Amino acid sequence: MTDTRIRVSALTPRMDLGPREARHLHVLRLKVGDVLRVFDGQGAEAAAQIAQLEAGRAVLTLGEAVSGAAETPFPLTLAVALLKGDKLSDVVRAATELGVARVQLLVTARADAREIGAQKLLRLARVAEEASKQSRRAVVPQVLAPISLTEFAWEGQLFVAQPGSQGRIMPLLDWAAPVNVLTGPEGGLTSAEVGGLLERGAHAVTLGPRVLRAETAPVALLGAIAAFGQEDQPRPA
Amino acid sequence: MTDTRIRVSALTPRMDLGPREARHLHVLRLKVGDVLRVFDGQGAEAAAQIAQLEAGRAVLTLGEAVSGAAETPFPLTLAVALLKGDKLSDVVRAATELGVARVQLLVTARADAREIGAQKLLRLARVAEEASKQSRRAVVPQVLAPISLTEFAWEGQLFVAQPGSQGRIMPLLDWAAPVNVLTGPEGGLTSAEVGGLLERGAHAVTLGPRVLRAETAPVALLGAIAAFGQEDQPRPA
Predict the structure, then answer these.
(1) Which of A24, A167, B214, B215 could be A205's S-S partner, Cβ–Cβ 3.0 to 4.6 Å?
(2) pTM to 2 decimals?
(3) Which stretches of B101-190 are DSSP H helices?
(4) pLDDT tens digits along A36-79
């Protein structure tokens, strides 16, 4: 099986590819009979064989399913305050590499913006798709349009990066349910915002005694989760 | 005491500041008698009082020492392969926020470059200085000119980020001695390079089952160390 991975709309017994994908296969010098991987961006991944390959189209036949070995046992969500400029792209890219299934944008009291343009949201979705491909994941994280902090609901655990907190993520992290992490804007969440989250059951955790930029905190916290590692735990049935 | 922090060449009973620093104090509307912090970039930090303040100069008198609360018990070193473009700046900036005392640049088999210009090295040093200030550290990390992997020697522990490794940093990390982390270039270290480091006592550790970019791996690994946190341990005498 080659390392090539092609995204398809769904894993079906016969998959018709358009001109762009067919050209991609040509560029990679693949031939009829070669085996590659297909994935649907929702976590399903399988082997597939090239049955036909012409200039403008190709047909693949489905092989055995491959488990999404690069995925966490339950979905991992990053909720992040709106940041200026290209910072959100950098965060989405790194978060995708570090295994998030979803990025929820948040409007907070001190966030750099109150909203995000449709074009920019689309661009973030493309960043997630590219990063997913590069990091060989079977899931393309969704990037969800901003909501307010009070609207943000979560399942499982929520860890809020909070400077000065005494909490540590390591002893608390439990992959028996979905895991969510939340990081604030430049200048941080207000104490009322943190208080509201803690009342709803969130855990405040520290990333050490230094002041981190808003775009470093999510990468550091997701890095800790990746390094701590419970991806090998049995998945829920 | 104000939040203002001024870098001085050394912490002495009387410190003479030049025009640039004096202007900075004026801009902040500080007055004679106000107390701020001074630090020497080597880890020493203290309170200081403004004794004289004129247009082009200022004199500070030294107050009580402030412990470097933002520092790890022993120095933390990042050894990182040369990367293209601005990636090294991004890594140095985030690594400074995450507490490194030193960034050692490395030439490895697959590194994007074999050397680095004097101007670029100077620029990285400036990035470290700015990031140190922003993250309110008393130490400005040194950025050391590239050496080969075989020349790289370390004290204490060395953790090498190695995709596919089964090792985890968490149970191994021990702040009873200096801690070093090493990350490779785009395309990774060769297995001979990793083998050589392991023979010399390094630990290979994983950051999860996904493929990380060369500029994400150091931030993720240093984030894990910061989140795990042993900064509160007693310092060596």
Answers:
(1) A167
(2) 0.78
(3) 118-134, 169-172
(4) 988 877 767 788 999 999 988 999 999 887 766 678 878 999 99
